[in-house]
Amino acid sequence: MQEQTQVDTTPTRLSTGGATEKSVKISVVKNGTSSLVNLYISAHEAKEDFSTSLKAVAESAGVLPAVLRKLVKALAGDKFDTARKEVEQLAMVFEEAGE
Question: Measured between alpha carbons, how far is 14 from 22 in angstroms, rounded to an integer?
Fold first, then answer.
């Protein structure tokens, strides 16, 4: 069982450079920053890993990375049908109106 840490949530008065002051709970900030920094680093690393993998798959498949990225984004979200319609309309416009 994990031990819970007591957090002092007493507001600290900080000057904002003007006539007004804001109450800031510094202890909450201090206690939260470690996990937030770890999450930020993980997100950054995941973004780099995704980009590297996307480029490798796109190159192997012979498609542009931007095209594959749009497909993955549509598949991962809830707007796949909307994205498909946009692609179909764009292809039609290119075919009919393009030179």
Answer: 6
What are the tens digits of pLDDT across the range 25-69? 889 999 999 999 999 999 999 999 999 999 999 999 999 999 999
For 19-42, the DSSP string reads S-EEEE-HHHHHHHHHHHHHHHHH
Q: Which helix (H) or strand (E) holds 97?
A: helix 80-97
Which H or E run includes 15?
Answer: strand 12-15
∠ Cα 61 46 63 (to 5°): 15
